[in-house]
Amino acid sequence: MGKTRAKDFTNYLEKLKILAMRKLNKVPRILQIINIENHKIYCAFNNGEYRIIDFQKLLKKWNTQKNSFEYPLLDPRQLAKVKLIGGTLAWPQIQKQIVLSKDQKIDIHLDLDPQVLYDESVSDIEMNQKHQIGKLLREERKKAGLTQEELARRSGTTKNYISRIENNRSDIEMRTLRKIIELGLDRKLEIAVV
Questions:
Q1: pLDDT digits (tens, 9 = 90+) for 91-111
Q2: Are 132 and 168 in contact (CB under 8 A)?
Q3: For the domain bounded by 132-184, which CATH number is listed?
Q4: Is the pTM of this model over 0.85?
């Protein structure tokens, strides 16, 4: 293989790796358990969203019976023993034995698919609103007496993009945010971690 083909192949592999990482980031994973309150677990997901999983509703929907593996989760004390393992919620203290064959048995603990947890949860509106740049941007744009179109022109972007940011329908890169704040709004961008 010539140097050019080898370089092209290496670039191709790098692009595949990037695409695989993007796809992996689209699969919901829980990054942190924020709070546990009665039958509700508050979590931060890898897409930056905070969500609430109501286990009382979920277990009712699943028609959980006394012989169900997840039945102990109806007890808030058992639910509170949750651990974050591999990007999902797990309860190492809740175990059962699975028979693979006549000679093979394995012990497993209860864990739940993060996709199911994401799909069965609701947005934590209070936590998500704390981190909405769009709301702040809209307020500052209106204070400056600018339309979305004027702000877009001044900051070198489009009205559509400004609208998507203000409605929290688009992520924004730091340098783009800086450009919108400093060039478009003629303000200074400061970020603090408190």
A1: 999 999 988 888 898 999 999
A2: yes
A3: 1.10.260.40
A4: no
